[in-house]
Design a protein that fits this description.
The structure is a homotrimer of 661-residue chains. Chain A has 661 residues and is an alpha/beta fold. Chain A contains 20 helices and 26 strands. The longest helix of chain A has 29 residues. Chains in contact: A-B, A-C, B-C.
């Protein structure tokens, strides 16, 4: 199947006269898919039970006439005013105990039974009406679950369901008391209904209480989406169902939330993503007009890994956004760069957001392929020039030799108790990911418990929660020859959120053959040095000292400064043909050096890429991306076969060529 | 009429014995007016219906004996405890939904019917008793409407009245849905009573919803003040009515709020104004002890322009304030400098705040003309030395040749969706205003729809909202020979808050002959360059690219950098003897250069003033103000006739001389 | 009595099997005391009236078997879930009006009658059961009163009791109106029940209202603690009662709160204390691993001064903490350094927090003497090495010649109206304290109204509130030959929170012989210069100008810059053999120079210590502490007799030697 393009459109937001010319323009631009309807509930059903489908019928017919395929959405992200008036109890409650009201979007509580019923009703009506329409090829459920901090609601409904969820999980309340360590501050419970939500406490809540509340809230989203999927599948057979997830999203478990989908899609906004990130100011300036390559591709790799298959970019930035503190114009070429990058990492379809810039309401500063006045904006020209070339690309995925392990529960545990203001789980993950990408190494990002067969190097940058089952699972691959690398805070917590009785890294200890003695959270300006690989490296932010527990584990690096002078910072244990490394420090240079060593041990090669150059491999092709303002010349043999561009890549340009076998 | 001085005094706050010496001291200092009573309700009416007027009777009599004239205030800014106890529903509600309680000031809701009744009652009693007293020459209504964020209340009363206001405005709810673009996020309404206030939404509210709520809240203040005025006029004939507005105030429409007043007055606190502004740190340090000249005079010009007539400074800082993060002593001479600056910009009376520093309650760190212990403070000596000279000054206003257009709705629309964290409507206005003042150009600041006859140069720095009516109005003056300059974001919105269908600058497009292609919100550190007037200029913060639509429009500057390389940044169109310029960039140097060009086109001259020198013209006199720590020598011909000072101006000094005819 | 060590332990948080080895380990480490039970209510009484004492009986018996002495705690800091369910009205209300719920600790309101009854019930049960147990030597009431901002509750119960407290204090409401200056913003009250709490006002509340609310809230804590003490003393005769106060704590009056205790104890966390302080970034980096010596010893001196007797450190940091933005490992030697520093300043017992690091709940990142896995952590080894040496130290206190005056009401008045964003009462105190410590001067910190006999130099850095009684008291000591030094803002307020009628320094004016003319709050970057002691000094932050009122007062320094050019900055008045100095500026160098002059006038000597060296004297011994990363060599005569260490002090080391008589 060729790689394809699409766009998000809103016929209900402009007049029929204005909209009439759009379908032909879309086809001529080379688009194949049009997403419709995710905020259209009040247009479809202006009063309870009174429907107006004409506009949507007409739009689908007109798109079909241009051979465009329709992705229809369930409109549940925006319950209408009449529904909120009739059932104010569907409104969510924020962490301060305030009800969040009608007037924007996502004003519903995942724990509201009424809202489940109303959602099911409108979805069934839409699925019955459009589910077998030949132009409708698939569905998107709702829109960006969790956006605007809506995963967790602190309502009475949530509290009641949380208590039931806890009873279901622990069966006996003594089990909960033990798991949470409730003797600590006299928190022991004797009845389920005495357990509150972990907000509005005098000081911080018990992290185990928080962890279970996060799990519960995540499960509520997953269950709600499953309900949507089941109705759609019943009435709309042979159509795909997906959901458009958000970048760097952290509030529910995307592995669980994507399990019942046909494929994953996500919304890719590179410039706003960088501006809102924790990157250095200079990085934000340097990449202001493109976003940072590794921040974007990290998400691609993560979303591909959710189901280990190709995905869609359901909303692709194609001009400036409106929701960041600063919203610059993209660089010339950026839309092409983002589109090809997405495809090189496994996107089969890239759908731009949005066709025409909205003239009214909250997003009236956001751009589209068309300007507010209907004329083509800068991004549209890039799409027009690019689209004819896509048929030369392949949709086959390449098997990778390196993977990063990622799980949401480790992220929750990490970020709810940072112990250092400037750290985060994502920051620690990216430190490893970006090192690999700078070496031209393609990686999968997968769940720790997934099948890891075939990976020669397995990297677990921040596997905060470790169970015995996980340790067994990883040991299996080490025994079979894989090299496994662990970062700081590995196994700092058991699944219940407690410190393991044997200390960190808990269950992982027997695999790496070390135990953590001390961890050191260093403020900005307070650094440390280690000696490793015959060099001296600066470390910052976080140090751990290791004790070697078994024969055959050896030190790869030692602290050179107080307070950890002469303690071990990095360890390596050979296991059959593989091995296990533990990296107890933060620091770009030392982590890069450790990964070079690990790649070597794993029998893998890497290269030193020019700054701002990124290489990605898919379907036998190499996509060379230039993320800089200057030209880059690729040092390739003259016989290289180019599918797109050539060896001199213009600023923000892309060259695609056949990989050496 | 000579220019005069006054002071704010609070006889109710000190013992009669202590107060007895004040009237004579005031007269001897050269003061003419004394403002009384704006916070005296609980002293006048300690229990409902029980009054104590003795203290006020005595005070007025004693002031009259010294030939001092009294400005009496309605005491409605501070409803007494017994009123709040009897009617807690008069309390306002903040944006988070919390009721704001008794214990400071301004604890009332403009939408409370009960509070209107109670206000009318106490005002009528006071107006009847004092309205024809020979010493009482005028009234101030309430005090600083809107202070402490009190314009907008999120109460049930406000909600009900807002719904009625909307119904009155739109008549049919479909009109409101269209105006607000409510299909956007399924926000369509079918009943007025389903429309809530735009607070506590999950994410930002619809900007059109906000804009109408801001208009409604503004109208509530205006109507409340009109009610006060009508009662006063009925019972106190031949006395003026004014209100003391606040500097850089943004929450209600001052053109509407001043329409029914006899003249405008405002409260001038230069040092705190600068400290709370968005000025650079170094500017805050350099002008810490005087405030910035242009920030202060911008307000003078704005308040003069509200009714296009002389105004009062009702509260003039005469020592340090207490409400800023840092509260330095004013420079020696600052009180004189501020007083003469005010008069040069159109103040007929400057009234100092306050006579004696308060020893108790919230403002006990604030200074007065008298120290806490009753001795003269530093400012008092400056006033004593200055007051004899005022009779040499003239109260005539000079007609200006240059005006700046300003309207509150454009400000609301601009600031509610900044699209760049560091911009603001005031910042954009001041960039233009300060350039002109550095060139010695006197300007009026007027409403865009006012009569602009006589202005050779009309500058619209930030006319965000543009209607066809406004475009017709401005075109009229361009046809008649005026040069009109527009800044960024002109016409970005229609009066309903939507983007114009033809794109920006909307209705203004046909006047300037261009359309905006792209706008670019640049983060700090991300700059751009343009070529204009044979020079290269750096731009920052905000770029727009222009497309020329008609013959005769030409480019004055082009971008030199990606992403807008070769796009047009500045345009000029000759229209009869006048013209229309569009400046699509931010940057002090380029805006200064464009204004030089516009002054030249308009046939006006300007000069290059020494840093920190400001010249203002009134009544045939030039007021030369030295805002620096060093002396300034004015390069004037020897025959120059000085009314005050001479050509060598001491630090923070003022010289006044006869203008060349 | 020898100086001794102890530890805080939680037998209820680990299994009996795990805990069994602890008592012997504790004894072998050289510990004498074990604190138990402050969070154990829900373990002791899992359901109302159902008790489980077995675990505690066993623990005490096991500790007793190792000759360890037990400090038992009342468990009232953590009411159980069943109590909150039965009586939700015991929950406190925060300043925003939100109820603070169950789920962490300190979730009770000091004004709740029900909570007093429940507290009395559980304390009586525990005191009866354990109060005469031979191993139980004393009690700690509750835990860290006021932690997490819990002194002040804005509940209905607090409001009702506050109204009664006010009526009790003022008797007639006119007295309250006068004291608070309620005419100011029409705040006059005619009924006690109309007086609200000073939260949720439109803008800031009346500072006199705040001051009385702070006093009331403080009194509530004191009364609650007294109630606890009385029950304990009744049922547990011949045992001490103490409470563990917090460092730099500001919310209630510790002089009143410690009056009924046998001795004071406090919780010493040097690294987190520095990180959360207002110290410069570079200071935070330099002392990140030890905390700053003067911040720590300031607290020691303050807590010793509360009752002018030896104290306990009830919780001593012995590894990293978990509650600071950054939580570094302590330097090697830091635990020893802190322990000996505490003892040198008057601690008789230092009790480490905690025995084993908690594996569950909120503090699972906090360290203990034992790691999470039960092995000795770094601090344990320091304790083991140190404990045998303690018997060589003496518990006698040295009489000091210099004292600093400190009172909580001055701090409240200072900090509730800073008038300069970056100032604080503690910052002003520490500017004086740290100067003295850098000169090797030992000081007492005492209440201004305490017996000051014997002090040759009395320093009042920030005596904001001054009464006539206080002025008489201080004048007495000046007459008798003491030198008294006053800092800025002295006597700025009367006890009712008003400015004195004669201006500042109010009642102190007649003692120092000056009055304050102006005060100048200077923003960062705005400085001033004075000429003093034939040198020029920079001042910053705060200037005051003085007027000399009587013969014999002379200027020690004058401003050299506008706006205070030629005004007096510092004054000195000789009184008999003593004198009174007023220092009207901020600035490390000038304050240091003034203190040198004052020490000289008082006939006292001082020395210039090497940076990072601190000397403290106790029991005839000098404790020389090295707070730096480098060695320090003490220039001592060869005959010096060392009790611990020698004249070459290692990094973070301590030497103890016999003082010259």
């Amino acid at each position: 199947m060729p790689l394809q393009l699409g766009v998000c459109d809103y016929p209900e937001q402009v007049s029929a006269e204005e909209w009439n010319v759009f379908p032909q323009q879309m086809r001529e631009m080379g688009l194949s898919y049009v997403r419709l309807g995710e905020f259209a509930w009040s247009t479809l059903e202006p009063e309870p039970g009174k429907f107006d489908f004409t506009w949507l019928d007409n739009a689908i017919t007109a798109l079909q006439a241009q051979k465009l395929q329709v992705v229809l959405c369930t409109p549940t992200a925006t319950p209408p005013a009449w529904l909120v008036e009739a059932h104010p109890e569907i409104l969510p409650v924020d962490i301060h105990g305030n009800t969040r009201v009608f007037g924007s979007r996502r004003h519903y509580d995942f724990s509201s039974d009424v809202y489940w019923q109303e959602s099911a009703r409108i979805i069934e009506i839409l699925a019955k009406r459009y589910g077998q329409h030949p132009a409708v090829v698939g569905w998107q459920t709702d829109n960006e679950y969790g956006c605007h901090d809506t995963t967790r609601s602190y309502s009475l409904a949530a509290k009641t369901k949380f208590q039931a969820w806890l009873e279901q999980k622990y069966q006996r309340i003594e089990m909960l008391n033990t798991a949470w360590g409730n003797t600590f501050w006299s928190q022991t419970y004797t009845h389920w209904q005495r357990i509150g939500l972990p907000n509005q406490t005098v000081t911080e809540a018990n992290p185990s209480h928080l962890l279970d509340f996060y799990r519960f809230s995540s499960d509520q989203v997953v269950a709600y989406d499953k309900m949507q999927c089941e109705i759609l599948r019943q009435h709309s057979p042979n159509r795909f169902v997906t959901h458009n997830f958000m970048l760097f999203f952290a509030d529910f478990d995307l592995y669980k939330a994507s399990a019942h989908l046909d494929f994953v899609s996500w919304d890719n906004y590179p410039t706003g993503m960088l501006e809102l990130s924790g990157a250095f100011e200079q990085t934000k300036i340097d990449f202001a007009r493109t976003g940072h390559p590794d921040y974007v591709s990290f998400n691609h790799d993560l979303f591909r890994g959710l189901k280990n298959k190709p995905f869609w970019v359901m909303e692709q930035q194609c001009g400036h956004v409106n929701w960041s503190p600063y919203n610059p114009l993209p660089a010339p070429g950026a839309v092409r760069l983002w589109t090809l990058q997405a495809m090189s990492h496994g996107a089969n379809v890239v759908t731009y957001f949005r066709w025409q810039a909205a003239r009214a309401a909250q997003e009236n500063y956001h751009s589209g392929l068309l300007r507010h006045n209907g004329r083509f904006d800068r991004g549209a020209y890039e799409v027009m020039r690019l689209s004819p070339h896509l048929k030369k690309l392949s949709d086959a995925l390449e098997a990778k030799k390196v993977c990063l392990l990622h799980d949401y529960e480790s992220m929750w545990a990490y970020d709810m108790q940072k112990h250092h203001k400037n750290t985060s789980y994502w920051a620690q993950m990216l430190m490893y990911y970006s090192s690999l990408r700078q070496m031209g190494v393609d990686v999968d990002i997968v769940h720790p418990m997934s099948d890891l067969t075939g990976y020669q190097l397995i990297i677990a940058p921040a596997l905060m929660i470790a169970s015995d089952e996980l340790a067994d699972h990883l040991e299996h691959y080490a025994q079979q020859g894989a090299t496994i690398v662990f970062g700081t805070r590995t196994g700092f917590r058991t699944p219940s959120g407690a410190v393991p009785a044997q200390g960190a890294p808990g269950a992982i200890s027997r695999l790496v053959g070390i135990t953590i003695k001390n961890f050191d959270s260093m403020r900005p300006g307070l650094n440390s040095r280690i000696e490793a690989f015959d060099q001296s490296f600066q470390t910052h932010t976080w140090n751990e000292s290791l004790e070697l527990l078994v024969n055959g584990v050896r030190s790869l690096g030692m602290y050179h400064d107080d307070p950890l002078y002469s303690e071990i910072a990095i360890s390596y244990r050979a296991i059959n043909d593989g091995g296990a490394m533990y990296i107890g420090v933060w620091g770009d240079a030392i982590i890069r050096r450790c990964l070079e060593y690990a790649l070597f041990r794993a029998g893998l090669t890497y290269e030193e890429l020019e700054p701002g150059l990124r290489l990605t491999r898919r379907g036998g092709l190499v996509y060379a991306q230039n993320w800089t303002r200057g030209g880059i010349s690729l040092p390739l043999p003259p016989e290289t076969q180019f599918v797109y561009g050539d060896s001199l890549i213009e600023p923000f340009g892309v060259a695609v060529y056949k990989d050496k076998p």
